[in-house]
Design brief:
- InterPro entries: Ala_racemase/Decarboxylase_C, DAP_deCOOHase_LysA, De-COase2_C, De-COase2_N, De-COase2_pyr-phos_BS, Orn/DAP/Arg_de-COase, PLP-binding_barrel.
- It holds the Pfam family Orn_Arg_deC_N.
- Keywords: Amino-acid biosynthesis, Decarboxylase, Lyase, Lysine biosynthesis, Pyridoxal phosphate.
- This is Diaminopimelate decarboxylase.
- This protein is α/β, with parallel strands linked by helices and about 425 residues long.
- The chain has two domains: about 5-30 and about 285-415, Lyase, Ornithine Decarboxylase, Chain A, domain 1; about 35-285, Alanine racemase (TIM Barrel, Alpha-Beta Barrel), CATH 3.20.20.10.
- It contains twelve helices and 21 strands.
- The strands form three sheets. Strands 4, 14, 15, 16, 17, 18, 19, 20 and 21 form a nine-stranded mixed β-sheet that branches. Strands 5-6-7-8-9-11-12-13 form an eight-stranded parallel barrel. The chain has a three-stranded antiparallel β-sheet with strand order 1-2-3.
- Strand 17 (about 340-345) and strand 18 (about 355-360) form a beta hairpin.
- Helix 5 crosses helix 6.
- The termini are far apart.
- The model is unreliable at about 160-170 (pLDDT under 50).
Length: about 425
């Protein structure tokens, strides 16, 4: 569920007409609904009821990569969420937004020495190690700083998530985690290293999952691993089950499993584990909480279908070009009739295509349209390709709205460059 609906003939974000935002800020612009974010956290938390351990509820560590906007993270921090981060920059963002350090999990295959040191100084809750070599490096950094790193290994269960190949992370050929079969030796090695405190196991098999069976398979393997690790003398206090539960992009397709169904599966799969569970939802929390609002530049005739050229482009919303991702495209002022069209942006790439031969609300030059379910992996992946400034972001709460990232002027892009003196000289000396 989201809070974007048609009232009096025009789309609103909660109590604010999207036209009000577009008139003031211009297009393209991302618009987020705080009420939707809060509701999704509440629904997911309710789905995890009964999974407490030693009086502690599961930790919901929001995947910051999905949407790192400070306003979004602040709303989540106020809801009691932690953060799953994959870089020093994301860690800084999470801490600045008020996420307590002990609710932070640091994932990612390429943590640098500087990032490790920063996270150790902040005293984060857990490092999810991706290799034995990373464990060695973290041990060295921790010992040098006289700190102890609480760690878990991310284990690759060799389970196909059944999602897009570029967002599948749990197969043996993927770069993530340690092989399941070598996990016992990795834990034995880490337990002997100074500065490390082994405390858990982690797994994450992919994103935009629409079937619970692969997750259940992966969790079964992790449950067996926890038993064998404890039998070998390791203390396993946490189990990070990752994230990845899908959201509905295409209303014509079956909806992904609900958070309630996911929670029921987790309760069954983790029965008897006796450890605190950690979850890393990202898309599930913010996907439906955002739209990309754009304007129609012109409608150009095509061989089969007309081209609706909008002022948003692949640099603003990369998912369709990168993953062939599907976004519902709705008119802000639906006229009641529909047509088939190709929706494209102004960037000089054929890949700058959002939809081909799409049945959609009929629109004309000057009309506004909204790309739905654009709150996750959208603004965060934007670039300045074609010297197009980063898209502004707006957050709405009830009848209030505010710019939470201003539109970047082109002059700022130019000012960020520097021209060496010798480049302006005609001499080659």
């Amino acid at each position: 569920m989201d809070h974007f609906d048609i009232r009096d003939g025009a789309m609103h974000a909660e109590g604010v007409p999207l036209d009000t935002i577009a008139d003031a800020v211009g297009t393209p612009v991302y618009v987020y609904s705080a009420a939707t974010i809060r509701r999704h956290v509440t629904v997911f938390r309710d789905a995890l009821a009964g999974l407490e351990h030693d009086g502690r509820a599961p930790l919901i560590a929001f995947a910051v990569k999905a949407n790192p906007n400070a306003a979004v993270l602040t709303v989540l921090a106020q809801m009691g969420c932690g953060a799953d981060v994959v870089s020093g920059g994301e860690l800084k963002r999470a801490l600045a937004a008020g996420v307590p350090a002990d609710r932070v999990v640091f994932s990612g295959v390429g943590k640098t020495v500087d990032e490790m040191a920063y996270a150790l100084e902040a005293d984060i809750g857990q490092f999810n190690l991706e290799s034995e070599e990373e464990a060695e490096t973290l041990s060295t950094v921790a010992a040098k700083l006289d700190r102890t790193a609480r760690v878990a290994f991310r284990v690759n269960p060799d389970v196909d998530a059944g999602t897009h190949a570029k967002i599948s992370t749990g197969r043996s050929e993927n770069k993530f985690g340690i092989p399941f079969d070598t996990a016992p030796q990795a834990y034995a090695r880490a337990a002997a290293l100074p500065g490390l405190a082994v405390q858990g196991v982690a797994v994450h098999i992919g994103s935009q999952l629409t079937d619970l069976h692969p997750l259940k398979q992966a969790f079964a393997r992790i449950g067996a691993l926890i038993q064998s690790l404890r039998a070998a003398g390791h203390v396993i206090e946490t189990a990070d089950l990752g994230g990845g539960l899908g959201v509905p992009y295409d209303p014509a397709k079956p909806a992904p499993p609900s958070p309630a169904a996911y929670g029921a599966m987790v309760r069954e799969a983790t029965a008897g584990w006796a450890c605190r569970l950690i979850f890393e939802p990202g898309r599930l929390i913010v996907g439906n909480a955002g739209v990309l609002l754009t304007s129609v530049i012109r409608v150009k005739p095509g061989v089969r279908s007309p081209f609706v050229i909008v002022d948003a482009a692949m640099n603003d919303l990369m998912r369709p070009a990168l993953y062939d991702a599907w976004h519902n495209i709705r008119a802000v002022h639906p006229k009641g009739d529909r047509f088939e069209a190709n929706v494209v942006g102004p960037v000089c790439e054929t890949g700058d295509t959002f939809a081909m031969q799409r049945g959609m609300d009929r629109v004309e030059e000057g009309d506004r349209v909204a790309f739905m379910t654009a709150g996750a992996y959208a603004a965060t992946m934007a670039s300045t390709y074609n010297s197009r400034p980063l898209t502004p972001e707006v957050m709405v709460s009830g009848n209030k709205w505010a710019i939470v990232r201003a539109r970047q002027p082109v002059e700022a892009l130019i000012a960020a460059d520097s021209v060496p003196e010798w480049a302006t000289s005609s001499s080659e000396d």
